[in-house]
Structure formats: structure tokens, C-alpha cells
Amino acid sequence: TCIGPTGGGALPEAGGAQPLPGGIGMVLIKDFIFSARVLHGQEAKAVGLISHVLEQNQAGMLPSPRKALDLAGKFLPQGPVAIKMAKLAVNQGMEIDLVTGFAIEAACYAQTLPTKDKLEGLLACKEKRSPRSKRE
To answer: Which of 27, 95, 105, 135 could form a disulfide with 89 if both were Cys (CB 3.0 to 4.6 A apart)?
Structure first.
């Protein structure tokens, strides 16, 4: 199996970069708004509002930025054009209708096609190995 899209210098296909309307769903959104309930870290992660939780230490301080640096280290090897275009497609997809979002995603995907990272991703898939980002 091949590496995920941005690792291969591309974007998710077939609308994969388009956020689902409401993200967590209207039922939960209404619950949070109508009840004025405050979500704390683990619950926010469980419903998909955040991806990571940093626990406070006994002094009530957040841990070192190590977790953030570890996460950034996972993003760094990905194709930079693919990351930029995926971010654009997701962010703009939050503000527009789905059909327009698909068109923006297709335009963003087209920007990844001539990159060395896209070619490396295809070659790596064919050779059944991890891609080595050219950072281009």
C-alpha cells in the first residue's frame, strides 16, 4: 500500500480535503451551545474538535513544547506544496458550498502535479517504499 497523499506530494482525492459540514454534527453543536457546557481536553478530543491534548503537570503548568515539536516533525517530511494546497482546500472548503469546494480542491491538486515530490511519491508507490521528499 502507498503512503498517504501529502507524503506522496499530493492531496486527498474525491473531496477528501473538504470538511464535513458541521464537522462534529448539528446535534453536538446544539448541545454545546444550548447547554453552555464547557468542553475540556479529553472530551474535545473524543468528539473530534481537537487532535491532541497536553496534560498539565502538578504545578498547573503545561509541559514543554516537546509535543508540538514532535507533531511538527511529522509534518516536515511531507511535500510542502501538497501541505500548502491541502491547507488551502480545507480552509476554503469551510467557507463555501461543496461543489465549489470540489473545484478548489481540483485546482489545488493540479498544483501538486508538476512537483518533484509528486513524481517521487508515484515512484515510491511503484517501488513499494516510503517517499523521500525533495521539498519541491
So the answer is: 105
Could you write out the DSSP letters of every residue in 52-116? ------TTS----THHHHHHHHHHTTS-HHHHHHHHHHHHHHTTS-HHHHHHHHHHHHHHHTTSH
Give the relative orientation of helices 116-126 and 80-93 as an angle to the nearest 10 degrees.
100
Q: Which residues of the chain are under the pLDDT cut of 50?
A: 1-2, 21
pTM: 0.63
The domains of the chain are located at 6-53+78-126
CA geometry: angle 11, 52, 39, nearest 5 deg? 120
Name the packing angle between helices 80-93 and 98-112 (round to 10°): 170
The three grid cell numbers given for residue 80, joined into one nine-digit string: 510542502
Q: What is the rounded (10 degree) CA torsion for 6, 8, 13, 19?
A: -10
**Which residues have CB under 8 Å from 79's CB, separation 6+?**
6, 7, 8, 9, 10, 112, 115, 117, 118, 121, 133, 135
Q: Which residue's entry shows cell 480552509?
A: 91
Residues ≥6 apart with Cβ < 8 Å to 78: 6, 7, 133
